[in-house]
Design goal:
This protein is mainly alpha-helical. The protein has nine helices and no strands.
Length: 202
């Protein structure tokens, strides 16, 4: 299947999910919205659960890609970490799947694909990556922390103490997640993160 058609199916599934609970989303409607046959949809994803896993995987990958884009921006490491926290909190507010993945709270409206790997015998070739284990909130914190450390201690930057940097990065990610669950008043996410980073060494 062409990657563009796969993306169209995932876009159609995401749009359908924004309008109704996942339990009410019908494969025939997703296929029609993407302009392909229902058989093509089943050939690509195997089942509605396979479609759900692929959709959540895409949103997880998109979130990590966004984190990398923000971290790679300009400014000193503290400002880039602050911008990353703001971006994570904002993305989670707008994207229910990202919010569920970051908090571990899957509402009844959402698909709740298993976090464990699906046996290889069930996996269609195009599906294998989507059928792998999805990141838990703890895994996601570690992924973002490690990417932040890698970017902020990369070539062309002063060599920081990696242990301190890892602590600061993890603190910022966890603070961003707490802001998803309980949005802050006043200075918002940036004010909280700057206050915390100001007290960190380095």
């Amino acid at each position: 299947m062409m990657p563009a058609a796969r993306e169209s199916l995932l876009d159609a599934a995401y749009t359908a999910l924004a309008r109704r609970p996942w339990s009410a989303v019908r494969m025939v409607d997703v296929a029609a919205a993407a302009g392909v046959s229902r058989q093509t949809l089943y050939n690509e994803f195997g089942s509605k659960d396979g479609l759900a896993r692929a959709l959540v995987r895409r949103e997880a990958d998109g979130c990590l890609a966004g984190v990398e884009r923000v971290l790679a921006g300009h400014g000193d490491p503290r400002e880039r970490l602050t911008a990353t926290a703001e971006w994570l909190a904002s993305t989670a507010r707008e994207n229910a799947l990202v919010r569920a993945m970051l908090t571990g709270c899957w509402s009844e409206r959402l698909p709740s694909p298993a976090l464990s790997a699906v046996p290889p015998s069930c996996a269609l070739p195009a599906q294998r990556r989507a059928d792998g284990p999805l990141p838990s909130p703890g895994d996601f914190v570690a992924l973002v922390r490690d990417r932040a450390v890698a970017v902020l201690s990369g070539p062309g930057t002063p060599a920081p103490d990696t242990a301190d940097l890892a602590r600061s990065c993890e603190l910022v990610v966890r603070l961003a997640l707490s802001c998803v669950a309980a949005p802050p008043d006043g200075g918002g996410v940036a004010g909280l993160v700057r206050g915390v980073l100001h007290r960190q060494p380095g």
